[in-house]
## 1
Amino acid sequence: MRGPSGPDGGRLRRCAALPALLFAAALRAAAATNAPTPLLLDGIAAEVGEARITIAETMLLARELAAARQIPVAEQAAKLRELYAEALESLIDRQLILRAYAALEQKLPAWMVDRRVEAVIEENFGGDRSRLVSTLNRQGMGFDVWRKRLEEEMIIASMRQQFVDQNIAVAPADIRAYYATNAAAFALEGPVRVGMILIGTRDGEGDAARLARARQVRERLLAGQDFRAVAGQESAEAHARNGGDWGYVEPADVFRREIAEALAPLKVGEISPLIETESGIYLVTKLDERADGVLPLEDAWGGVEAHLRRRETARRQAVWLDSLKQATTVRRYPLP
């Protein structure tokens, strides 16, 4: 099954990705090498009110985006302007949120920031503050500057919680409507969940002995023994480790004709007759069957609800950021 997806949430993900990119990925990468951060020719990329965003910090985030997405180095140059534009919008959003916070005349308690600092040091530097300081020195950044940026990330998270994330509820009617209009998103890999046992030839075993053993296995299944347990004990087929479970498949597309034909008339839980082939003797069953090939609504409910919640979060954030932009002068400057 493909989970519900969509184009929504791009700006939300960009803004939410900043803490990890700026403070985790960058620090871990820098900690792994003694090479200094390369110098960039700098200039002004954008102005948000009186705050300035530099080309250097925008380019740094663009490179971190490329690294986080594992874009090959050979392809990064071709995508650099696209990544730069995305990074710049993230940094503009960041400044807009910080300006909105300043207007509230609030301040994070110092102890909260200190606790977060210690958590970052523990998570990324094994609790060794000196390793963090060494990494920052190689990047040409002082500890106080880094701490200030970490504080800003905490502010952004707090503002998102206050103005975006609170009280988001998804109505059951919306879940049903999305499910009804996006059936393709819930298509199963195949309508039948197949269980299979292969009775192969053991060393020194003749055809008659193998056939007798296959009949005994079938009798055990007809007597009510668990198919998965018997498959794990007796099957010579690769799925034996999973109890002979092939998952949901379309039998005609996956199995040889005689196996697919043996499966067709079975009801769930019924055991096929012995299917003799040159590669061995097969027994198959239907562990489950969904004739329409679509995940039922009750099984899809949680995934749809989460998807719609993310979409509503992205919509709210877009509206919120647009309102902040309308109240602030934002100037963007093209790259040289």
## 2
Amino acid sequence: MSKQTYITHIVQQVNKVTERCGAIFVYGENIDYGSRLSGLARGLTVNPAGRIQNVGNCELTHVGVGLGILLDGGQAALFGKQLDFLVLGLEQACDTFNFIRAYRPRSTWGSFTIFVIVCDQGYQGPQSSLNGAGDFASLINIPIYCLNGADDAAGVVDRHFASPGFRIICLSQRQFGAPALQVPAEWHAEDDSLFRYRSGDDATVVSLNFALRDSLDMNDTLVGAGVHSDVFHMNFVPGADLTAVLQSCRRTGKLVLLDDSKTVTKFGDILIAELSQSGADVEVLSFCRRGCRNEDYGANEDRFMPDHARALAFIRRA
């Protein structure tokens, strides 16, 4: 029996929710024929009360429809080809949802989830330049989850895919054909803003966006050299309680950040600011890209490759 891939595992987790959640409207461009969103929607099913609907090319309308269903107390899930296309729906996602937050009690909301691919495997045309989910979290101020491993994917989809409220769940196209990352989480926060995968006293390693595989690979190198670290993954959840990771940083005195997004602002900067403001004596090594050069918008591999030797030297430095 072949091992599950990253994408087949995630679709299986979605189907577990859609088979039991009652009436749900699942929609997107090419969701039920052709490439089925590059394989994202292949094998997708709903229960008899639900519906899968192919729709035309109008992201502003797509987001408005989902928010309308949320307002009516229903359940909707929009599947999208790439994060870039959500820019076309930002007016609805920001302004319409701000109106809902201001004037409609949360107890009356239904559920709206945007399930979207992030193009992060190299150049795929001019509309494949955005890979930073944190930017959208900042603009809309809603939870955004980046699915990295089998454990966090199962937990996030089960607890949030059809729950009341509005959120975005992002998938890494680079990992679609890779085996599902079968690394159990030792602990996770109630809101799934934090997952801890490894424990140690020498350093704190924090993954953001889709850098968990890289973080665990780095941790394997560190363990081979006798260095043991706490390894966390952070999602973009407004008002998240970061106590666990902040306490880890204060205990180890060394923070290594890995963020494969190409955004200028980083969610991990919150950690650095919190530690600085509290007067914590913590050294920081950041493997983070800050935006793009002009030449990065053409054909390129776009591969995030943190330096393991540099991390080891940083942690061992007195």
## 3
Amino acid sequence: AGHTAEALNACWIDIWYDLVQRSHWSTDLAAVLSEEFSFGQPPSPEPDMSWWVKGPIKELLRNAGSKRDGLLLRLATLLGTPIDHALSSKLYCSRQDLAQLVADGIEVGGHGWKHRSLATINDDEQQKEISESRNLLDTIKAPEPRSFCYPNGSCNDGVETQVATGGFSTAFTVEPGFIEPGCNPYRLPRFMVHNRPADDPEWCAAFHQSTKELL
């Protein structure tokens, strides 16, 4: 994606997560945000971290479009925590780092340019997201064939066509499952491992269900 260490701004979701991490979030603060943005009451007695990172504020930001930057500034003010404008250099690989990964034999694929949900934007915006992602892979000399991963798993037939004609040979969704003969190469499933223990219930349930379907 375009969010490398050289980028002027970090991805909106990373800015939000950083604000949450550096602020002293509390029930009172959650109530202020809920009233400000008409969310209704936050979880009681204490909103856990999932409310902050996966709840209504994330959805508000996801759907904010051109108003997102102003919304992030407003949230930063309400949290009493300034936006870190050097966040990109702290979080992301540089283009040189990515080129070194490729040179070391690590596959680097496409993931859009600004991590936008592709099925929610128009054809021209989709094309820009995909072509700029491909151009970055050209810059770091990523070999072909190349794979793509849909941001947030957001895809439809039109997005699939754009990815296929945009220089990618395969693409991954966020649906859990095994890749089997006959799978659509532009709707491939995957298991999202994250930083979870081997006996994580959600991971085990998805794995066992996919194994049952395979057998």
## 4
Amino acid sequence: MNPLVLVTSNGEQIPNQIVKDILAANGNSADKTSSVSFGSCTYVTYFCDLKTKYYENTIALLPYEGNICELPSEMLKATEMLIVYFDANNKSFKQQLPELCDLVANNDISLGVLLTSKLFDDVNQGLTYGGIKESCKFQFDVIELHNDEEDNGEPTGYKEVIEVLKNNIWSNVKVPGTDDDIPDGDLEEQLEGFENLLTSIQNFKRISNGMERDQMLDEAEKLAELFIKMMNED
């Protein structure tokens, strides 16, 4: 089974439309689907093809309308990323974040992503970036979808969602074995760099439980910078 990305909504945007917007931003069509079964229920997933300099793979986006906490445990355990849409003018959504964070942690979901049309700058008007991050710490990225214009060269909107998908290390990552356009020496160097990165991530996951909070955050930041640098190399 392809890595599963669960897409749900606590706002005006419906999960099916979010999935289609993600596919469109990635240049994929919405007609490549497959069914997966968990328990007595069957769900439709949409294939999303990802390709970077170092790997290419296909993930499965599963739109779901309903309370995700009531989903079968085997389905949540199979989920590698959780994407949740929310309305920033709904201040009560912040109260749901601890439960979502627990769901991510308890099911070993690699990353959560919170999507909204546009955040507020004033806490009196609605939810702000700082207020959301204070509640979900590092378990969720927060992305505004108000536009797809680049901000200081960085992708925003659904383009930023695609970058998050590409920067994640999926369980079915495949490093291209050969490339006639890449000299043997360069290919060997790239593969070695990728393998070293995977080793660093595995080591971090193994030893992070024994670290102090500040040390863990510092090491995680260094690891993230290394990964982004590799993904953006020409």
